[in-house]
Specification:
Blueprint lengths: L2 E8 L1 H5 L3 H10 L3 E8 L3 H7 L9 H8 L4 E9 L1 H9 L12 H5 L8 E3 L3 H11 L8
Antiparallel strand pairs: 1-3, 1-4, 2-3
The structure holds inosine-5'-diphosphate (IDP) and magnesium ion.
Length: 140
């Protein structure tokens, strides 16, 4: 499988509990490498743009409120099959369904406050990375 890059976000529930290091440890231990990283806080417009694909979903407004409720950590991860590997380490969206050892199984509070985001395809990864970082902020 090819070397890929994917967008990862550590969400406000996790920054609030001071567990960003524990989450990054799981990502790095799985063979993913952080090639860009910044702690920031999204505006409502930022969150609405990022999650535009979900704007018709019933949870959209709550999701935007949650994602703007505190700091987040945006990161680009690189590695063999990084998109799928990151999704594997994250675990299922609902922590009740997440496999043992995954980030969401170990750390998520519920289906919304689930600690991490990860791009779901190579195409979406490229678009999400471009939304969050300039080319010269990626240092492999
Ligand atoms: P994913 O993060 O596993 O890719 P998506 O379906 O893309 O899951 O949903 C984006 C985010 O929206 C989830 O990570 C979670 O924070 C929130 N979310 C998804 N489904 C629900 C729900 O049924 N209720 C509340 N929030 C949800
Ligand atoms: Mg998704």
């Amino acid at each position: 499988m090819a070397i890929e890059r994917t967008l990862s976000i550590i969400k406000p529930d996790a920054t609030a509990r001071n567990i960003t290091g524990k989450i990054i440890d799981k990502l790095e231990s799985a063979g993913l490498r952080v090639v860009a990283q910044k702690r920031t806080k999204w505006s409502t417009a930022d969150a609405e743009a990022f999650y535009a694909v979900h704007k018709e979903r019933p949870f959209f407004n709550d999701l935007v409120a949650f994602m703007t409720s505190g700091p987040i950590v945006l990161q680009v991860l690189e590695g063999e099959g990084a998109v799928l590997k990151n999704r594997d380490v994250m675990g299922a969206t609902n922590p009740a369904d997440a496999a043992d050892g995954t980030i969401r199984k170990d750390f998520a509070e519920n289906i919304e406050r689930n600690s991490v985001h990860g791009s779901d395809s190579a195409e979406n990864a490229a678009a999400e990375i471009a939304m969050c970082f300039k080319d010269d902020e990626l240092v492999g």
